[in-house]
Amino acid sequence: MTAAATSARPRHLLDFQDWSPERLTAILDNADTMLQVLDRPVKKVPALQGLTICTAFFENSTRTRTSFELAARRMSADVMTFAAGASSVSKGESLRDTIEVLTQYKVDAYIVRHHASGAAHLVHQYSGKPVINAGDGRRAHPTQALLDAYTVRQEYGSLEGKTVAILGDVRHSRVARSNAELLPKLGAKVILCGPATLLPADLGALPGVTLTTDPVQAVRGAHAVMALRLQQERMTGGYLGSLQEYADTYQVNEALMGHAESGAIVLHPGPMNRDVEISAEAADGPRSRILKQVENGQAIRMSVLYHLLVGRD
Amino acid sequence: MTAAATSARPRHLLDFQDWSPERLTAILDNADTMLQVLDRPVKKVPALQGLTICTAFFENSTRTRTSFELAARRMSADVMTFAAGASSVSKGESLRDTIEVLTQYKVDAYIVRHHASGAAHLVHQYSGKPVINAGDGRRAHPTQALLDAYTVRQEYGSLEGKTVAILGDVRHSRVARSNAELLPKLGAKVILCGPATLLPADLGALPGVTLTTDPVQAVRGAHAVMALRLQQERMTGGYLGSLQEYADTYQVNEALMGHAESGAIVLHPGPMNRDVEISAEAADGPRSRILKQVENGQAIRMSVLYHLLVGRD
Amino acid sequence: MTAAATSARPRHLLDFQDWSPERLTAILDNADTMLQVLDRPVKKVPALQGLTICTAFFENSTRTRTSFELAARRMSADVMTFAAGASSVSKGESLRDTIEVLTQYKVDAYIVRHHASGAAHLVHQYSGKPVINAGDGRRAHPTQALLDAYTVRQEYGSLEGKTVAILGDVRHSRVARSNAELLPKLGAKVILCGPATLLPADLGALPGVTLTTDPVQAVRGAHAVMALRLQQERMTGGYLGSLQEYADTYQVNEALMGHAESGAIVLHPGPMNRDVEISAEAADGPRSRILKQVENGQAIRMSVLYHLLVGRD
């Protein structure tokens, strides 16, 4: 019997498939409380005291791992860092064996990043423990989408009737995919925009999601404009001509933002390639909420941990 | 004056030479309590609050290190991870200098893994602090043997009159050596089995230990059968013909287990090479206590830390 | 507005420029209390509970990082280890972006090591948070100088009228530079000694500092003699002839110490090249305070953290 089976609601955050708008809103509401904790001199609550959270990162990401580990420690949990590179996994141990061993160590929850889509789901299946997906392949990065949603809500009070444009390499972006799943559940519209080679048709079939290759059309009426990080290695895959060509058309900059709503904000999941997918001016200007996103990430991750591990229905 | 000199009993666990059956039994008994702690929602006791435990691993082993660090944190100790690869040791600093520096940081105990036999003993000598040997060369890995003993005792209530067969590369195995030293002290018999090239004669001289090259003879009457991990690199040393040849004769599988006692259990120190030294069926079947061993490892390591750092005679 | 601006005194320790002798003496006095804490069975005080200290090491130094992290944990702070090598920095993220992101995680203070002189100052500027410089380029390593000063004071009761000779590669040593800035503020004289190619003239212009290429003249009348670590890579820069030639003239050994004050002590910032810049005999003999320096480093780092984060004027 898995942990999921013991509860009316899923004790994991793999993607947003099984998540109702009510539960999602509860996460965002609770993040308000967590932000207040982060504003206090002593930024710590005892909510997860005595629990052990394992960050199992099979793909390196210091920034995301650090953000989760800090969030867990601020809830007073013990953190166990499992760096796959340094472990038996590199000796050929299977994901299943690794997770079964970690579970015998009495880990209370997992935060998983993996290059393969679906890996977080497998960890949940093998362990029967709450799992937070911190990015699996191109599929999902749900806490990033939650912090994006939270940042937009913070600006406008609600996501209802708001439009979020997301520009860049949509095809390879778990951030874009998770936002496309999440935002419409909270009442927002999503416009995904990029070169035709980087726009997967299946996402256009989601409710509330529109695809376009035209950046001006994408940002027209948008309340928030997100630039996706351009992975340099995509250049070699034949998806793009040149960085310059890409930047000329799809860069989020002041000129493009002139077509958006007057108070529209600029988002980026980081780390940025300044003057490639986003101009330095837009990144550092008054519309930018990029550092706010990072701050909100702490609050959202604390809120998700609380919701999965101690919250009640 | 070393810590050892301040106490009637040794404040270290290097091997089992100076350990009486009574003290060993106390460790196993106390592990029962620790297992209960691990079953509670809050898996933490304040026993080592304010103490700093240093894991000094001069040989990489994420699994063993993690297990010790979790055990220490669950006793409320602070953990200092000293990864030799990233340190002054790689600049040519001697073991002595390294340990003397760490000791000046006021470390309260060391958990040491090193490729050289006797290294843990040197750390104890240089530091005067309690030391747990987490594997030194081919010599000893005492907490692994304790968790093996504990797992057998858990099954049968006692080790008195039980037989444990250990199959594989006995020569290069500190696990085999530590079990050969420990189990007879607790009243069990040990049969060590492997190809003649991998069976060191000196172990056969230990009380309660028998050597054989015949796996069927080894497991006959055994209450527990342990497969040792086959280090692939041994193949090049001329010790073995081929993996297949090895597996054909010495693999722990259902066929071989048919010769053991009817309720005999299967053990493995992990990580496993499935279908080499152990069949997948035996590893995952009802006789397997391999995941139980991992769980018991937490309890045993907590018990050893308690015994060395706060226990009284 | 930066943290520095909110307080009458700087909330950072970058170098000793703005530090009065009174504040420096307060740090040393408080280290006495910290040493007492380190002598207790429970080596922990709650002073920094709920605060998060980030060690941002852009240059590897396990020893220094470990010393700071232990000090922070003994003050009950949470520690966030930011290892630059494993992070976005290696993907080309700028120092500014990195620090701005970390600051959004609500880090309360930074401990920074960086290969570029002035980096710690930039971290303070970008974050507005208290920063301790743990070594930036050739410029400064203030906590090392403080622990050196503390070790001399421990021996003689005061630094007033004492002479400290520092021998070796002065040019490339942030330790030498920081001591040259600190010790005269506390009433001591500093003699810097090394081959002419390794003696930067600007240091000789500091009050209380003298340069010489003659080791006997350097140690004459000295109450403490410090050997600097000889970086092997300097050999290729044309600064030195051979290791042997260097050792013949500048090695701190019993013969050279015969010219110092009768009770003079031997210091080294570690790790040592025994029988290069210091003889094994001098390193391990009765004059050596090298292990004492390591112990004092814990106390000094705890004292600096306390002073910057909770102390009052």
From TrEMBL, chains A, B, C:
Keyword Ubl conjugation among UniProt keywords: no
InterPro entries listed in its UniProt record: Asp/Orn_carbamoyltranf_P-bd, Asp/Orn_carbamoylTrfase, Asp/Orn_carbamoylTrfase_sf, Asp_carbamoyltransf, Asp_carbamoyltransf_Asp/Orn-bd
GO molecular function, one term: amino acid binding
Swiss-Prot/TrEMBL catalytic activity: carbamoyl phosphate + L-aspartate = N-carbamoyl-L-aspartate + phosphate + H(+)
Subunit structure, as described in the record: Heterododecamer (2C3:3R2) of six catalytic PyrB chains organized as two trimers (C3), and six regulatory PyrI chains organized as three dimers (R2).
Keywords in alphabetical order: Pyrimidine biosynthesis, Transferase
Family per similarity comment: Belongs to the aspartate/ornithine carbamoyltransferase superfamily. ATCase family.
Keyword presence, Repeat: no
Gene3D superfamilies assigned to the protein according to its UniProt record, in alphabetical order: Aspartate/ornithine carbamoyltransferase
Protein name as annotated: Aspartate carbamoyltransferase
Organism of provenance: Deinococcus metalli
Domain Aspartate/ornithine carbamoyltransferase carbamoyl-P binding: 11-154
